[in-house]
Amino acid sequence: MSCLMVERCGEILFENPDQNAKCVCMLGDVRLRGQTGVPAERRGSYPFIDFHLLNNTTHSGEIGTKKKVKRLLSFQRYFHASRLLRGIIPQAPLHLLDEDYLGQARHMLSKVGMWDFDIFLFDRLTNGNSLVTLLCHLFNTHGLIHHFKLDMVTLHRFLVMVQEDYHSQNPYHNAVHAADVTQAMHCYLKEPKLASFLTPLDIMLGLLAAAAHDVDHPGVNQPFLIKTNHHLANLYQNMSVLENHHWRSTIGMLRESRLLAHLPKEMTQDIEQQLGSLILATDINRQNEFLTRLKAHLHNKDLRLEDTHDRHFMLQIALKCADICNPCRIWEMSKQWSERVCEEFYRQGDLEQKFELEISPLCNQQKDSIPSIQIGFMTYIVEPLFREWARFTGNSPLSENMLSHLAHNKAQWKSLLHKQPRSSSGSSPEHGGP
Predict the structure, then answer these.
(1) Which amino acids does the record list as binding Zn(2+) 2 (predicted)?
(2) Helix/strand/coil (H, E, C) string of 270-315?
(3) 245 an active-site residue?
């Protein structure tokens, strides 16, 4: 494998004759185009948001100059790529943990299918390696390593890459969230109405999509990227900007790790496309689209899970449920997730205010309280989707359990909202809606 330096962005590109890959350079973006033809972003292609560059926004309407952007991107790309070239792949330091911690982590994994699984505790017990540890376990228990003849070392390397590309400084969109969504997805894949139809490929796609669905999330939302003229907003034409990036980044890591390199080309093509379809379904702006389709299927009773297309649609719905299932967890965990996501909102709002940008909805800490945001989210987003999921599962024990937690948590937030002084709550439950 040869490498060459590209002056424009300072990144390192790879030419692999076996895959006949060619590199496509764009300002602030590196994408590999292999035999599959699906563009894939290299690791680290998403720059950390450098808010110092926003100082120019009010004057020029652009985030600094191309030269500044070039400097911002170069170091991060070089840091990631040079570390890989030197063969420095950080390993999950589980062997450094006390045996008692390892024993507790193993005990928790024996109950990974329980809805009250405490991902925060599990992350502490694994020394911050919850995503890697959980995925290795689930791939093994589902028989995916044997079925797809995966190399365990390569799988571990790929999962470490995914875990590292989550930003630990994000209060919410970090690797612990990815692990939580993956654990929820595992629970949904076990639902009797779905489980009996799933193939090993379906299960692997569901788990991989859950693990990588928010990879390299910058901690700000799509409207923020659009109004600050971020290069990814331009690249994806303001459509599912973050989700497209999560998907393309995942493909880049799959190819870089060569996890699936031994599989037939047609199969890897299919896996990459289906991963994209699953991850893109998590775009909250497409909520009504998927909810309407699910209602129609359930009303017409025309879901045929023997059919690949219908089965894939239900995997999309399952991932959407897993992504927003926090309000359906027990109160102690649900409250912690709510506080984390609102903290991320408020950080964005503070930055928008600092740089004289319009503060995005739900991001104004002075007007948008946590209870009002959560009540609106539950009412307009979570409840409609999980009611239909319960219909699909035939009101399974898990679905009834989730709806019970959802009702209890909503009542808790309403109680907290009513206890807030009028001046500090600022917004009504309806204000928290879409």
Answers:
(1) 214
(2) HHHHHHHHHHHCCCHHHHHHHHHHHHHHHHHCCCCCCCHHHHHHHH
(3) no
